[in-house]
Amino acid sequence: MMLFIYFLIYFLLVFVIRSVLLKIKTGINPLTFNKTDDAHGYNGKVFTVISLLELIVVGIYAFKIEWYKYLLIFWYLESDTLFKVGWILLIISLFVVWFAQSQMANSWRIGIDEKNKTKLVTKGFFSISRNPIFLGIMMANIGLFLVIPNAFTLLILSLSTISINTQIRLEEEFLKREFGNVYLEYAKKVRRWL
Prior knowledge:
By secondary structure, the chain is mostly helical. The chain has a single domain, classed as Four Helix Bundle (Hemerythrin (Met), subunit A) (Up-down Bundle). It is built from 7 helices and no strands. Helix 1 packs antiparallel against helix 2 (39-63), helix 2 (39-63) runs antiparallel to helix 6 (151-179) and helix 6 packs across helix 7 (181-189). The mean pLDDT is 95.
């Protein structure tokens, strides 16, 4: 049940509340994934599937434990140590993502915003990683896999790794066009992940 509550809090804080606050403050909808069949729109659909899959898997673990065995458990990875490491990653992830979003302030978006100009954020967590929000999300996915190691959490981890790396490259191309040499200089100093 704790895992389910954690994910509800995570989704509320990181996506819902953050989006509502930005919309109230700026009038801009931060959800920028389009409905087209280009790479950006497709990646938005993949993010949605990953999020729903996470909620279903965590819901089964919390409320239908008798169904959990059908998720193809990796029993050999179930240990107190990995469980604790997983929870540590989940908690750290929430703080990293929340604070990185706070540091982006009005520039934070879910996806690429071609319509509204934003500032290039290079301070705070962004002075250590060009993608601290994605880093935090990856930490959460690894943490989830370590807490409940099964075929579906491995699938979530795999899909999110591919999807996030694709999104990073799409965003990098956009930032090169948007900020030119300023972004290129920043990219020389700060690594993509860590």
